[in-house]
Amino acid sequence: MLPENQATAFAPLRFSVAPMLDWTDRHCRYFLRLLSRNTLLYTEMVTTGAIIHGKGDYLAYNEEEHPLALQLGGSDPRALAQCARLAEERGYDEINLNVGCPSDRVQNGRFGACLMGEADLVADCVAAMREVVTVPVTVKTRIGIDDQDSYAFLCDFVGTVAQKGGCETFIIHARKAWLSGLSPKENREIPPLDYPRVYQLKRDFPGLTMSLNGGIKSLAEARAHLEHMDGVMVGREAYQNPGMLAAVDRDIFGTTESCADPVAVVRAMYPYIERELSRGCYLGHITRHMLGLFQGIPGARQWRRHLSENAHKAGADIRVLEQALALVADKR
């Protein structure tokens, strides 16, 4: 039974862009939103300590970013509930708990992938957040940790968090995590992907909404996974080749809209960029997220080079983008 204040099951997360530390900041998300209206975007992971005790506004975002999910890092149910309540008040569409990051720093804070070994605690965290918000509370996790990588272990974790915590939506990274011996980057590449295991999990928990994450390189691959799953989450490919998002609304969500034109997207960024520059932001802080936009298009290398060499300079403004754009547009 759902708590009385809890919304009905969240619509399947058909296509989303993963939370990526140091990458999916508000500038990145504003840019990605111009490429796809329907894709669910996630913030970088934000710790409960930063939100509660930090001096900055760690919940800031642009209204244009919706639909938008906040990913929280933490393991104190009370602190997570406090942050979830604040996030809902600020208008976030989903609260996600990080149970997948394997970095030493995250483990030292007792959150991330190490929480897979504490299913009851994760359930308590989810339940505490669900009690105070009406937006969906979801969990992003791995398929196992260290030597706790059996299918039975995974089922026990998901079953406990779903039944005791009331979690209805899981995003499953189809690799296990090694909590020591591998860097976060190696943990994204060395443990083998096991898509069949995630497919089986969905079959064994048909009442739960499940999205698959890990290693997805194209919309064709995403569509193939959607034959088995409710949704797919794409990470680094969407960041390094953001142009793939231009066709998501048509190819994944089935809208009648035409694919976003990358040149038009760049120019649609101008008002936002000018506003941010007037507030003291440097051009390079924004354009670093746009470098891969023209991947596979003649002139893409010149685009990247021009932005990389000039966007960081003092006084850099829209003219830098126009100059870079001409290197691509003239060859299209």
Structural description of this entry:
- Pfam families: Dus.
- The active site is at 101 (proton donor).
- The protein is α/β, with parallel strands linked by helices and 332 residues long.
- The chain folds into two domains: 15-251, Aldolase class I (TIM Barrel, Alpha-Beta Barrel), CATH 3.20.20; 262-329, Four Helix Bundle (Hemerythrin (Met), subunit A) (Up-down Bundle), CATH 1.20.120.
- It is 41% helix and 13% strand.
- It is built from 16 helices and eight strands.
- It has helices spanning 26-35, 48-53, 77-90, 104-108, 119-132, 151-163, 184-187, 195-204, 219-225, 236-240, 248-251, 262-268, 270-278, 283-287, 300-310, 318-329, and strands at residues 15-17, 40-47, 68-73, 94-99, 137-141, 169-173, 209-213, 231-234.
- Strands 1-2-3-4-5-6-7-8 form an eight-stranded parallel barrel, surrounded by four helices.
- Helix 5 packs parallel to helix 6 and helix 15 packs antiparallel against helix 16.
- The chain is globular.
- The protein starts with 14 loop residues before the first strand and ends with a helix.
